[in-house]
């Protein structure tokens, strides 16, 4: 006959066995339930699930640039896309943005845009898309060897600088020499990731804004300019409205053809052309050939009028600027 202590031990053992059996049944039930649930297939590498928001750190890229006459309400939204993503991306861009007209939607904000002194000024700015998201270097493609091209030109087209800002401490930085009082135009030329190029214009003021009609440069006699002893002579062919015009520059020094012309911004020269009647935008001409000091460019000028062209060439390691003004009929 079992003692009370033995009976208690046997009861405790039986209870433990019942509990273990119950736990085992529960585990089997849960495994069966999970096996019967539909599985979520893994997405291929680099592919984004529909409706998924893609982020890099705390930033979401969404480019919204509008066509002429279009508003944010009538424009279709553009999906967010990271640099490494494969989601289809199509940005809306101003019809004539290829000619450098300021595109709507994207914007720039300068830390300081009004200056009291005639001096070299530190320019600090940030670039944003149409939704107010900042465009840092990771969200910009390299264009002509730079992430951002900053053109600073006075309202009367007598001062011009082509700068390449660097991104440091959360802002784009450049230094511009602003030697005369008045209004300057700062053009920011960018190419967003998988978007279309855009040019944004912002005004800079030195002492006070320009007033009245600007006193633009007059016609350049014989179409040549001299910088640091180098003479750049311009000849033009097919220079009529709406047709591709060929601009050919010949560089010479001390009566001899300059042959040490080195690549600059990925080509043998860089030319920006302003219509004096429409300084809100510009046309960029690209070098098509280089032969014995002769550099040819192609540009389409859409209207008759007076133009000022700023040509830059890397001569023996130094970038030289040659402004020339001409008429198109």
Task: Summarize this entry quickly.
This protein is mainly beta and 329 residues long. The protein has one helix at 4-36, and strands at residues 107-110, 114-115, 119-128, 149-154, 160-163, 166-168, 171-178, 182-190, 198-206, 224-227, 230-237, 244-253, 256-257, 261-262, 270-275, 278-291, 294-300, 305-315, 318-328.
Features:
329 residues; Immunoglobulin-like; 10% helix; five-stranded mixed β-sheet; single chain; ten-stranded antiparallel β-sheet; mainly beta; 19 strands
Structure explained in plain terms:
By secondary structure, this protein is mostly beta strands. Among the domains are: about 95-205, Immunoglobulin-like; about 220-329, Macroglobulin (MG2) domain (Immunoglobulin-like, Sandwich), CATH 2.60.40.1930. Helix content is about 10%, strand content about 40%. It has one helix at about 5-35; strands at about 105-110, 115, 120-130, 150-155, 160-165, 165-170, 170-180, 180-190, 200-205, 225, 230-235, 245-255, 255, 260, 270-275, 280-290, 295-300, 305-315, 320-329. Strands 10, 11, 12, 13, 14, 15, 16, 17, 18 and 19 form a ten-stranded antiparallel β-sheet that branches. Strands 2-9-8-4-5 form a five-stranded mixed β-sheet, with no helix packed on it. Strand 16 (about 280-290) and strand 17 form a beta hairpin. It starts with a helix and ends with a strand. The model is unreliable at about 5-10 and about 35-105 (pLDDT under 50).
